[in-house]
Amino acid sequence: MQQKAKTKNISIVLYKPRHAGNVGSIARVAKNMGIGNIVVIGTSDFEREDMVTRSTHLAADYVDNIKYCDDIAEALAGFNFIVGTTARLGKARGPFISPRAAASQVAQLAPKNKIALLFGPEDKGLSNDELRYCQAVVHIPTSREFTSLNLSHAAMILCYEIFAASLDVVAAPEPKRARSSEMEGMYSQIKELLAEIGFLNPENPEYWMTHLHRFFNRAGLLSREVKIIRGICRQLAWHANKKKE
Questions:
Q1: pTM for the full model?
Q2: Is it the case that residue 21 has pLDDT exceeding 50?
Q3: CATH number (domain holding residue 16)
Q4: Secondary structure string (H, E, C) spanning 166-192
């Protein structure tokens, strides 16, 4: 049965995928679930026919419209909410939420925000550096006997949950959040300020920055709130420099 869901603002973003067939399968998933776009980062040399074989001709248009980027920051710059996915657990990678919990959040945000569903390479997944761009990190629970999921299977689980959740959205959608590029600009400014006042350990500056990323990512900042924080940073930096004079 065909259904209409508010999923056009959602993109599947594949970071350094290794197999053309998996990209084609993702195109089929995207079309099944009404996902608007596919972005591939770090590779553009897949043969079209290899992708279309797995996408089927009905999703060949999705294959032809894939956007290719070299840099992850550039690819994610325009998104307001980024959901990362991981099979590997660890304190430095979480906190983790289920696909259903992520879907509920995405369904409320998607009408007014651009959403990225970020998947890593088939062999390694997303590293901590890539996960720092994410406002939510999804872990799909599996049987202990066999924990590995095919890339397209993981994408289908998450996309289906989002599709189903979006059909039931009745509350007013959440407002538009700051773009990833705005958040990254803020983080760079905060890091520069904290280094200048001696708060960051120069041998391990990312320790506190990782915690700040998590804090602000959970807060769901709007563009004007990012501007306020950056204004405060500028004023603090001015005072710090004035005291040195």
A1: 0.84
A2: yes
A3: 3.40.1280.10
A4: HHCCCCCCCCCCCCHHHHHHHHHHHHH
